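subagent[fold] <- orchestrator: predict structure for attached chain, return tokens only, no commentary.
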Amino acid sequence: MAITVKEIRNKQFASQRNGYNKDEVDDFLDELADQLEDLIKENLSLAKQLMERPAVESQPVFFEKPVEVHKESTPATSEAGYDEPSYFKNLETTLRETLINAQRVADETIAEARKKSAQMVAEAETTAASMLASAKADADAAKSEADELRKNSGEYRAQFLQLIENQIHLLNAEDILFK
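subagent[fold] -> orchestrator:
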């Protein structure tokens, strides 16, 4: 149910200890009701001016919804001269459509975000697999190089040991050096 200016003006709040300042709340509600009443009057005035304006073919005016203006006074019409129930019914319909559109946009945004996150995860997995393969290849190359170094080191030791043994053999053969 839509709230009316009259309901705002007549709203009473229960008193509570350590609650809001009652005068400030009342002042705020009065100011809110005044502003709402002024906006409704302005809206109705503009709608009336628009309906009374002669139609100009070169400047069409389009509305999402027709604006209802009641020329005769009904029991639902307040002292201010506007029909609060129909105004708030139109306002409620507009708000409902706005919420539906907002929900649709939110759903589309969520779907797009999920799609983008799935794409990002797929790209990250591909990159991770590529990095893992590269790291494995680098590790295999390092292992092969280390094995080659061990092999070369062993050969060098064996050759160096042979050289030392040959030198010892030469040093032990006194007759060859000092003849």
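orchestrator: received. Logging for downstream: DSSP finds four helices and no strands in the chain. The CA atoms of residues 166 and 172 lie 10 Å apart.
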